[in-house]
Amino acid sequence: MKLLITGATGLVGSKLTDVLRSAGHQIHYLTTRESAIETEADFKGFLWDVRSMSIDAACLEGVDTIIHLAGESVFQRWTDEAKERIMSSRINSTQLLINALADNDHQVKHAITASAIGIYPDVWEGQPLKENEVPPTADNFLAEVCIAWENIGMQLKELGLKHSIVRIGIVLAAQGGALEQMAKPVKLYAGAGFGNGKMWQSWVAIDDLVRIFKHIAEEQLEGVYNGVAPNPVRNRPLMETIGEVLDKPVFLPNVPEFMMKLMLGEMSATVLSSQYVSSEKIEQSEYVFQLPELKEALKEYLK
Ligand SMILES: NC(=O)c1ccc[n+]([C@@H]2O[C@H](COP(=O)([O-])OP(=O)(O)OC[C@H]3O[C@@H](n4cnc5c(N)ncnc54)[C@H](OP(=O)(O)O)[C@@H]3O)[C@@H](O)[C@H]2O)c1
């Protein structure tokens, strides 16, 4: 296959690119940075600028599948300007891809766009939420972004493409992302849970997440899939398991919710929300998780 990947220089995209190249697939990728352009036989970068809505249409040459991951990081203070960048980097970039596909000859048959489990409402008890259990309206900024991102992505179907969405959970990786941030205080014996410590955290090992994208691309699956592992955990046990694996016990009381809000502002929603999300649908599509258990995943990435 020949795939066009956006966000290929990021945490998920760089690992995804490695796995796809190792499987013999060819990669085109879009980046906003000239310094990130590389040209190899199976790996070729192209520029786009989402602000000025410009794109090098040569990125589509020979491509059959698009994986769209690009978007400004949500892990920053949510000022009005940051919110605008977080939203527009996802919506305008998707529109730019749609415009490029509409205006150019191409062979693209399938597009996979990223979203996040932030689209789901908070759940404290009961069953994990499935892909069809999204409320019609958003009650916070992250959900607003996800709904808008998914809605514009669905226009890809109007171009005659197959379309799928992966709602990404909390990505655990050796470097970068949530785990590195959670492990930092634990390493200094200053680890603690957040708020009431009971929030569900639907995590996914990066190695599984990128293989989920690969599986959906290779099998040309359509529709929405949660990109989460089968065993979500609550926040305090998650922090305690990180402590156990690092051999640095987590004994401090949880950081109260008001302190989290003072420290992080509205962005505290990313750590205080309780997302209890099901992996059943992707498993039923015959995807087999490599790291379904939290402790094994933590051992893999914290060793
Ligand atoms: N990591 C997680 O835990 C997690 C959880 C849920 C959802 N997600 C979503 O999954 C996607 C990939 O996540 P990630 O962790 O790999 O993100 P990341 O490491 O922050 O990388 C995002 C990529 O997007 C591109 N980008 C950033 N700002 C942009 C802008 N203003 N316009 C166009 N492109 C821009 C960058 O590419 P260039 O610099 O090369 O242009 C960057 O490589 C993101 O959309 C993220 O929101 C991630």
Automatic annotation (TrEMBL):
Q: Start and end of every DUF1731 domain?
A: 255-300
Which InterPro entries does the record cross-reference, listed alphabetically? DUF1731, Epimerase_deHydtase, NAD(P)-bd_dom_sf, SDR39U1
Q: Which family does it belong to?
A: Belongs to the NAD(P)-dependent epimerase/dehydratase family. SDR39U1 subfamily.
This one is known as TIGR01777 family protein
**Sequence ranges assigned to domain NAD-dependent epimerase/dehydratase in this UniProt record:** 4-220
